[in-house]
Design brief:
With 877 residues, this protein is of the alpha/beta class. Helices cover 44% and strands 15% of the residues. It contains 27 helices and 28 strands. A hairpin with a 5-residue loop joins strand 13 (619-622) and strand 14 (628-631). It is globular, with a radius of gyration of 32 Å.
């Protein structure tokens, strides 16, 4: 085994890794490249950092610049840089003093030349968006026939609630247009980057699928060539990386005119084999393992994705330097030995030379990028690895800071669009934190008695969080308080899950049973990571809202600096540290008694809470300590989950979904998150069909029974009782003159009219609790409201204490029902500045004219009704 050139070998440290003893050394991280012990060969070399940063900033600015401006910048920087370089004295190469004296001029020349190169590269890439016929056709919204070459894997959009419905699902694919032909025109050869949007939900019901119910578009590989008929449209926002949007209607099998390349077919088989090997695993590991190994997040549910965001664990799903480091560690040995004269790992044990190891590592880097796809974090990790392997091959072991700067410079020159990528920014910042702050922080913790391994892990997690949190705050307008402990707990599972996952990936094409066994072993650490994310996201104080702007990022960075400075002083005072830790734990866990004492929310004796979930409905009826009946779930799982957590609700005997519009049911995953749910009750009118199917899928996955509500049904739990007053029972289809049993003559028409839509089929309830009567009307429209006023329950509706106003206070209300109900308090759930104009001024005026106090969530926030025996109190969150 050959050794690296470097410092002399100590007598108590064998020259080979095979010796029986070693002097005690400290490796800063066993899972991340570059976080080795701070012992370096001299001071850190920072000369490449300014040119890399200057090139980065230049590329980000010039991409949108006019070509003449970019040309002027390139010319000016080249001229000035050459003049500065020519002005260097020849003696600068002769003596060390002369070289040191010439460094500022040489650095300035290098910086200017890098700026010129970045401006030239960004100008050329920016011009690609304006070149050729595609941009002009997009401005005209022309229908074209185009030949495109895919440059990314297809990905599905996440469901988004828009009003009372969910936006159609679409497949998104990055591609390059190679030929384009307008109707009746001539085909033109070009090359323009576009975003292909395939409207899957708009396809005919009998469309072709891939055998698993998915659109065949999802099975396409990068480098595949297609011929599509589509409509061009301008890019969605200025500064996009695409020249246009190509919107395709999914009519079945895409027309393939060119097969993918050999490497992409191999990568596709490997990725498909890993998915097949994980098919038999539990839900969370089945979704997570492909994401941890190759960044395939197609199986990640929105609920699990949200949990990872809440705990700042999303980086584990974006393949990054940590994944690549684990692979290099298998080849070269632990990263902690990177600064020393010996290496361990498979390569030296197999007798592979240093240069052979570097070549093998280069092949591994290339395969890593192909299989994991060239996302910003992947290419950054591979570039850093390539620079480090080049240093290994030439025997020049230098600091990883120059390697990182070199990687950034080369990548920005090769692909200037990375300069605007938040993923690239987060990847570089996190790596820089691990290379600079983490070793110093871990060393400081060791000096204060923290065990070495814990100090290393804590220093790495804290350093990455400190520098990345301001950027994450810009993206999510939220700061996680549990990110560091969650990352610490997940760190120990990432390496085994990744190693076993890559082993399953490699063996799946040749021995699927072996791959399934490896995947089964990997599902334990993957499941552990998922449990950590879910547990952290379920904590009431796991995160705080923060201004989602760069000003907010600067404020958070300043706050982090203050915390670090204060924390350094507190580390010498164990009692103060314990007190601060206890306060932080209480802020995160937020025990209900303490929260109620500090904030006054929820008020003691609350009976009904109308949650603030934006433009939608979600209410909770108190049914005992930690228990509540939920009526509707709102449009956002996160908002309703936050409301239930603030109320301390952990048991839900019944969830009532008044109807299947998305603004009432899309938040159901948040209701079910971490809570025991007895049953779900819905209306019998299952429209929209996609949302009804969504509810049934969730219920089946949790094995929760689903029942139908009908007028006359009465239930009780504790002091809470309620009666369903609408919709009437469904008549038998073959009985044209049927009326519900016990109906007084004339109370209903001979046959109750079929609902005109989901709103008129809403479940309406009359609730009794602690002497209060509450009428919840769902989204009933005037026809159903008039029928309800003539129903057998009409007398019971007179003079209620609280009215949940129908349909978010819209103008479509029946005055007769409002007069009959004559509520003392009217509650309206609606979103701030909603596009529907809810609540209507006329509705609010009519309620107030009848003597009701009107409160609304868009202005008053969450509303809690308390009291009993005629007394009525309202609290606002």
């Amino acid at each position: 085994m050959r050794s690296l050139p470097g410092p002399p070998v100590r007598q108590d440290e064998p020259a080979s890794g095979l010796g029986p003893t070693r002097s005690p050394v400290h490796a800063s991280s066993g899972t991340r490249l570059g976080t080795a012990r701070p012992r370096q060969e001299g001071p850190t070399d920072l000369r490449l950092v300014p040119p890399a940063l200057a090139a980065w900033a230049t590329a980000a600015l010039v991409l949108d610049a006019h070509p003449a401006w970019a040309f002027g910048l390139v010319t000016g920087c080249l001229v000035i840089g050459c003049l500065v370089a020519v002005g260097l004295p020849p003696s600068a190469r002769r003596t060390r003093r002369a070289r040191v004296a010439s460094w500022p001029r040489a650095s300035a020349a290098a910086l200017l030349l890098c700026v010129a190169a970045a401006a030239a590269s960004a100008g050329l890439h920016g011009a690609d968006l304006r070149r050729g016929p595609v941009p002009g056709l997009a401005r005209e919204y022309a229908t074209v026939t185009a030949e495109v070459e895919l440059s990314s894997d297809p990905r599905l959009t996440r469901p988004k609630v828009r009003g009372d419905h969910v936006a159609p699902t679409a497949v998104l694919i990055d591609a390059d247009v190679l030929r384009v032909q307008e109707a009746g025109g001539t085909a033109v050869t070009t090359r323009a980057p576009v975003l292909v949007i395939v409207d899957v939900d708009a396809a005919p019901p009998g469309r072709v699928t891939d055998g698993r119910g998915r659109s065949p578009w999802l099975g396409l590989l990068p480098s595949t060539r297609l011929r599509v008929s589509a409509r061009l449209a301008p890019a969605m926002t200025s500064g996009d990386r695409v020249a246009a949007v190509l919107r395709v209607r999914d009519q079945g099998e895409p027309e393939v005119v060119g097969e993918p390349s050999g490497p992409q077919r191999l990568a596709g088989r490997l990725r498909s084999g890993l998915r097949e090997a994980t098919d038999g695993l539990p839900a969370d590991p089945r979704a997570l393992l492909p994401g941890l190994v190759v960044g395939d997040t197609s199986r990640i549910t929105p609920e699990l994705e949200e949990a990872f965001k809440e705990t700042d664990l999303t980086h584990t799903l974006a393949v990054s330097g940590a994944n690549f480091t684990i692979l290099l560690a298998l080849l070269l040995g632990p990263p902690g030995l990177a600064q020393h004269v010996e290496w361990r790992g498979l390569a030296p044990r197999l007798g592979i030379s240093l240069r052979g190891t570097a070549v093998l590592g280069g092949v591994l880097s290339l395969g890593f990028v192909i299989v994991c796809r060239p996302d910003p974090s992947v290419v950054r990790a591979a570039a850093c690895g390539a620079v480090a392997l080049l240093a290994l091959a030439t025997g020049r072991r230098r600091s990883m800071i120059p390697a990182l700067a070199t990687a950034v410079l080369l990548l920005v020159l090769y692909d200037p669009w990375l300069a605007r990528s938040y993923g690239f920014l987060l990847s570089v910042v996190a790596t820089g934190a691990l290379l600079t702050l983490a070793p110093r922080w871990s060393a400081g913790l060791r000096r204060r008695g923290v065990p070495p391994r814990l100090a290393e892990a804590l220093g790495a997690a804290a350093a990455a969080q400190a520098l990345c949190a301001p950027i994450v705050a810009v993206l999510s307008a939220r700061v996680s308080l549990v990110a560091v402990p969650c990352n610490l707990l997940a760190e120990f599972a990432i390496a085994p899950a990744t190693v076993l996952g890559f082993a399953a990936l490699a063996t799946a094409p040749v021995a699927m049973p072996v791959a399934e066994a490896l995947a089964w072993c990997a599902h334990w650490p993957a499941g552990w990571i998922a449990r950590i994310a879910r547990a952290g996201a379920a904590l009431p104080g796991g995160g705080v809202d923060w201004p989602g702007s760069w000003a907010g990022a600067a404020l958070l960075l300043a706050a982090t600096l203050v915390v670090v400075l204060v924390g350094r002083r507190l580390l010498g005072h164990p009692w103060w540290c314990a007190a601060c830790g206890l306060l932080l734990a209480l802020a995160v866990v937020q025990p209900p008694p303490l929260t109620r004492a500090v904030t006054g929310w929820p008020p003691p004796g609350w009976r009904l809470v109308m949650c603030d979930v934006g433009q939608g409905d979600a209410m909770v009826l108190a049914a005992g300590e930690g228990t509540g009946v939920v009526v509707d779930a709102g449009p956002d799982p996160q908002l309703v989950d936050r409301c239930l957590r603030s109320l301390g609700i952990s048991r839900i005997p019944l969830v009532v979904l008044t109807h299947f519009h998305a603004d009432h049911v899309a938040g159901l995953p948040g209701v079910l998150r971490g809570r025991a749910v007895g049953a779900i009750e819905t209306t019998g009118f299952e429209e929209p069909a996609d949302q009804a199917a969504f509810v049934r899928r969730l219920a089946a996955a949790r094995r929760i029974p689903v029942t139908r509500a009908a007028a006359g049904e009465q239930r009780r739990t504790g002091e809470l009782s309620w009666q369903v007053v609408w919709p009437p029972p469904s008549p038998p289809p073959d009985s044209p003159s049927w009326t519900p049993p016990g109906t007084p003559p004339g109370a209903f028409p001979v046959r109750p009219p079929a609902p005109e839509g989901p709103n008129d089929a809403s479940v309406a309830m009359l609730v009794r609790t602690a002497g209060l009567r509450l009428l919840l009307l769902g989204d009933l429209e005037p026809p159903a409201q008039r029928a309800l006023a003539r129903s057998p329950a009409a007398e019971a509706l007179e003079g209620v204490d609280v009215l949940k106003v129908a349909h978010h206070g819209s103008a479509y209300q029946d005055p007769g029902l409002i007069r009959r109900a004559a509520p003392r308090l009217a509650l309206i759930s609606c979103g701030e500045d909603n596009s529907y104009g809810h609540p209507a001024p006329g509705t609010v005026a009519a309620l107030r004219a009848g003597g009701a106090a009107v409160l609304r969530t868009d202005r008053d926030g969450a509303l809690a009704v308390a009291g009993g025996g005629g007394e009525l109190r309202v609290a606002r969150d």
